[in-house]
C-alpha cells in the first residue's frame, strides 16, 4: 500500500503482525504500577474498544503484557511501517489544506529525529505525549484525511471523539489534554487515569502538535542566558570564558548548549542518559562529550583561560559538577537546572551515586526507595548550589519545578519568610519584565513545502519587517527588537533545524501580525509555499503557571487560570486552524493550565483577516491581565496598544499608595 492508502485505511482491515521493540530505541521510563487488578482489566477493556471483537483474544494478552512491562498500553503492533516525518504538505491525502497542515505537524512531533521517545508517542519531557497509543494516531490521521471544511475533529486527550459538523470559520481541530476534575488532579490520579487509557499528559507543544525540536526553545533560552549575563556583568564585559552550569539534554532541555554558544559563554550541561547526550552531540547541539569529572575540570579551566565559547556535555550527574567545582574553586557565573522535575519519580530526575541503569531498575522494582533517593539528592543538589551562590553565582529556577520539588524534599531553598523561594524563577527576573509584560514571546512558523529555500525567504522577510518596525519603536523595547533582529539574521548559521523547516522568533503582537501578513502576501504571489503559524505555550497569555509563566504576577491571581481558558476560546473564534488546552506543562500536571494554536497561511484574504484578529488577541489578552496585576511594563504596553488600536478598551488599574494600607489591621 502507498503512504496515502495507509493513512486512509485508519485501523487496518487485517490484524498486523506483532512487532519487536527496536533494541537501540531511547525507551520511555516504565510507569508506576498503580492499578488494581480490576482497574487493569478495565484498562484492557478500554484499549480493546478500538478493534474488532475477533482480535480481542490475541490483543488482550498482548496489551496486558505491555501494561505489566511499561505501565501503559502503547499498542506498538499498530505503529505504521512507513517513516514518520514532516512531508511536503501536498503529499498528505486530505480534502482541505488545513487538515493536511495538521497531519504534517503531527508527523513532525513523532519524527524520531525530533521526538524523545517516539516508540511511545512521547515528544519531550519524559511523558509529553502526542497520543496515548498508536490506534489513536491511525484514527486521527484517517479523520483528518476525510475531513471537510465544514467539520471539526474533537480530541479528548489523544482520543478522536469524532468529526462534528461546524463551519468553514471554525477550528478544524480542538484538542484537550489531561483536563481533570480539580479534586482528581494529583500525581497518583493522573498516573492511574493515564494507565487506564482515559487521559494523557500533553505537556505543552507535544500534545498540541506544534513542537519543532529543541530549536523551539533555543531562542527563549538564548534570551534568558544573554539577559542573565547582562544582570551580573558590567556593560563593557562579555560572556566569553564565563560559565553557565545546568543539567538536562533530553527534549526541550537539549536547547541549552546551543543557546549558550549563541550567547557566547562556556556551557556545561550534565546529562545522566548517555544516549540523550550522544544524540545532541551528533546533531551538533553540543560541542564536546566528557564522561570523566577530572577531565571536565581540566577542560573547563582551559576554556576559562582562553575565554572560549564552547558547550560541554558531561555524561554524569550534575551534583558531581557542582560539588567538584566547589572543591576546585571554579567560579560558576550562571547556574540553573532543566531536568524533567515535573515527573521526579518516573525518570525526570536521577539521583546521585546511582547509575542510569540502576535508577531505572529502582523505578520499576522499588519506586518508594527511588523517591527517597531523589529527595536525598535534591537536598544535596541544593546544598551544593548554596555554596556557590554564597561566592556570587547567580542561580535561577528554569521553570522545571526544581525549587518546588527541592522544597518538598526539605532542601534549603526557602526565603526567610518561609513562603517564597530564595532564588527567583527566570520569568520573575528576566522573561517576565523584559519580554512577556511587553508582549514579546515565542512566535514560530513552519514552511509546509518542506523546502529549505522557503525557510531562507521567510527569515529574510522577518528581518525586513523587524527593521521597519524598529525605526519607530519606543526606547522601552529597542533592546528586545535588536536582539530579535540579531537572532533572525544568524538563525540559519546556527543550524537549528531538526525535522520540519521551522523557525522561532520572539515578537510582540505588532511584529507577529506584520510578519504573518508579509508571509501571506509572499504566498499569494507564489514566492513561497504555505506557512503554518504557531507559538510555544510558554508565552505572554497562553499559560497560567504560578511557578513559571505567571510567577511575576503579584496581585494574588497567579494561581488562577482564567487567562489560559480565555486564550483558547478567544483564539478559536478569531481564526485559529486548531486550538488546544492542557492541564499540565513543563512544571507538572496539576501545576499549570496552558493553551496553544496553529494557523495555516495559504495566501488568501480570509487568512489575512484571521491572522490579524487572532494574533492580536492571542498576545493582548495576556498583556491586559499582566497590566491589571499592576506590572509597570505591561501597563505601558497596553496603553501603547490602545493608542494604536482605537477599538481596544482595556481596564487599567488605579495604583495605590502603600501609606494608605498601614495600620489598617
Automatic annotation (TrEMBL):
It catalyses: 4-imidazolone-5-propanoate = trans-urocanate + H2O. Its cofactor is NAD(+). The keyword Cytoplasm applies. Its main location: cytoplasm. One of its GO terms (molecular function) is urocanate hydratase activity. InterPro entries: Urocanase (IPR055351), Urocanase-like (IPR023637), Urocanase_C (IPR035401), Urocanase_central_sf (IPR038364), Urocanase_CS (IPR023636), Urocanase_N (IPR035400), Urocanase_Rossmann-like (IPR035085), Urocanase_sf (IPR036190). Its EC number is 4.2.1.49. NAD(+) binds at residues 125-126, 203, 271, 398, 586. Residues 213-430 form the Urocanase Rossmann-like domain. The keyword Cytoplasm applies. Residues 436-639 form the Urocanase C-terminal domain. Keywords: Cytoplasm, Histidine metabolism, Lyase, NAD. It is an enzyme of class 4 (lyase). Signal peptide: none annotated. Binds 1 NAD(+) per subunit. It comes from the Bacteria. Residues 84-210 form the Urocanase N-terminal domain. Gene3D superfamilies: Urocanase like domains, Urocanase superfamily. Transmembrane segments: none annotated. It is found in: Cytoplasm. Pathway: Amino-acid degradation; L-histidine degradation into L-glutamate; N-formimidoyl-L-glutamate from L-histidine: step 2/3. Belongs to the urocanase family. HAMAP family: HutU. Catalyzes the conversion of urocanate to 4-imidazolone-5-propionate. This is Urocanate hydratase. It comes from Polaribacter marinaquae. The gene is hutU.
Amino acid at each position: 500500500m502507498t503512504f496515502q492508502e495507509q493513512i486512509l485505511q485508519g485501523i487496518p482491515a487485517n490484524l498486523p503482525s506483532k512487532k519487536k521493540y527496536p533494541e537501540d530505541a531511547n525507551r520511555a521510563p516504565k510507569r508506576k504500577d498503580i492499578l488494581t487488578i480490576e482497574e487493569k482489566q478495565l484498562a484492557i477493556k478500554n484499549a480493546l474498544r478500538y478493534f474488532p471483537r475477533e482480535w480481542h483474544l490475541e490483543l488482550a494478552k498482548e496489551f496486558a503484557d505491555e501494561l505489566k512491562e511499561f505501565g501503559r498500553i502503547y499498542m506498538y503492533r499498530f505503529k505504521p511501517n512507513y517513516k514518520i516525518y514532516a512531508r511536503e504538505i501536498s503529499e498528505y491525502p486530505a480534502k482541505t489544506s488545513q487538515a493536511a497542515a495538521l497531519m504534517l505537524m503531527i508527523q513532525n512531533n513523532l519524527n524520531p529525529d525530533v521526538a524523545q521517545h517516539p516508540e511511545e508517542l512521547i515528544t519531550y519531557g519524559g511523558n509529553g505525549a502526542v497520543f496515548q497509543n498508536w490506534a489513536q494516531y491511525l484514527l486521527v490521521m484517517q479523520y483528518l484525511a476525510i475531513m471537510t471544511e465544514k467539520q471539526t475533529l474533537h480530541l479528548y486527550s489523544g482520543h478522536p471523539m469524532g468529526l462534528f459538523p461546524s463551519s468553514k470559520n471554525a477550528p478544524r481541530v480542538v484538542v484537550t489534554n489531561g483536563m481533570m476534575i480539580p479534586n482528581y488532579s494529583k500525581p497518583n490520579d493522573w498516573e492511574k487515569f493515564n494507565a487506564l487509557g482515559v487521559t494523557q499528559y500533553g505537556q505543552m507543544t507535544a500534545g498540541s502538535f506544534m513542537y519543532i525540536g529543541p530549536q523551539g526553545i533555543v531562542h527563549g533560552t538564548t534570551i534568558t542566558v544573554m539577559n542573565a549575563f547582562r544582570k551580573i556583568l558590567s556593560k563593557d564585559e562579555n560572556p566569553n570564558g564565563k560559565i553557565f552550569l545546568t543539567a538536562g539534554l533530553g527534549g526541550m532541555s537539549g536547547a541549552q548548549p546551543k543557546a549558550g554558544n549563541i550567547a557566547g559563554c562556556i556551557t556545561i550541561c550534565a546529562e545522566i542518559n548517555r544516549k540523550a547526550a550522544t544524540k545532541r552531540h551528533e546533531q551538533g547541539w553540543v560541542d564536546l562529550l566528557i564522561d570523566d569529572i577530572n577531565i571536565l575540570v581540566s577542560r573547563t579551566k582551559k576554556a576559562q583561560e582562553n575565554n572560549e565559547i564552547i558547550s560541554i556535555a558531561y555524561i554524569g550527574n550534575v551534583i558531581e559538577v557542582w560539588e567538584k567545582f566547589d572543591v576546585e574553586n571554579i567560579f560558576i557565573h550562571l547556574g540553573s537546572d532543566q531536568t524533567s522535575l515535573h515527573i521526579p519519580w518516573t525518570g525526570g530526575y536521577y539521583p546521585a551515586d546511582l547509575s542510569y541503569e540502576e535508577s531505572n531498575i529502582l523505578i520499576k522494582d522499588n519506586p518508594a526507595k527511588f523517591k527517597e533517593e531523589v529527595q536525598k539528592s535534591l537536598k544535596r543538589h541544593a546544598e551544593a548550589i548554596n555554596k556557590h551562590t554564597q561566592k556570587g553565582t547567580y542561580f535561577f529556577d528554569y521553570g522545571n519545578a526544581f525549587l518546588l520539588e527541592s522544597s518538598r524534599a526539605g532542601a534549603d531553598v526557602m526565603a526567610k519568610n518561609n513562603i517564597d523561594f530564595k532564588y527567583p524563577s527566570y520569568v520573575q527576573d528576566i522573561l517576565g519584565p523584559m519580554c512577556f509584560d511587553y508582549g514579546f514571546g515565542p512566535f514560530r512558523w513552519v514552511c509546509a513545502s518542506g523546502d529549505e529555500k522557503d525557510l531562507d525567504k521567510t527569515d529574510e522577510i522577518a528581518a525586513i519587517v523587524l527593521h521597519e518596525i524598529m525605526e519607530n519603536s519606543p526606547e522601552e523595547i529597542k533592546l528586545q527588537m535588536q536582539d530579535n533582529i540579531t537572532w533572525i539574521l544568524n538563525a540559519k548559521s546556527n543550524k537549528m533545524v531538526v525535522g520540519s523547516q521551522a523557525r522561532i522568533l520572539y515578537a510582540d503582537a505588532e511584529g507577529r501580525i506584520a510578519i504573518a501578513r508579509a508571509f501571506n502576501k509572499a504566498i499569494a504571489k507564489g514566492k513561497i509555499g504555505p506557512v503554518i503559524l504557531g507559538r510555544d505555550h510558554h508565552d505572554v497569555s497562553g499559560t497560567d503557571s504560578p511557578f513559571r509563566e505567571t510567577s511575576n504576577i503579584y496581585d494574588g491571581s497567579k494561581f488562577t487560570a482564567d487567562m489560559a481558558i480565555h486564550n483558547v476560546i478567544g483564539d478559536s473564534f478569531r481564526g485559529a486552524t486548531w486550538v488546544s488546552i492542557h492541564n499540565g506543562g513543563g512544571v507538572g500536571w496539576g501545576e499549570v493550565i496552558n493553551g496553544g494554536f496553529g494557523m495555516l497561511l495559504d495566501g488568501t484574504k480570509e487568512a489575512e483577516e484571521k491572522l490579524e484578529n487572532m494574533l492580536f488577541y492571542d498576545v493582548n489578552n495576556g498583556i491586559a491581565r499582566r497590566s491589571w496585576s499592576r506590572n509597570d511594563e505591561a501597563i505601558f504596553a497596553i496603553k501603547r496598544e490602545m493608542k494604536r488600536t482605537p477599538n481596544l478598551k482595556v481596564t487599567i488599574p488605579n495604583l495605590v499608595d502603600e501609606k494608605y494600607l498601614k495600620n489598617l489591621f
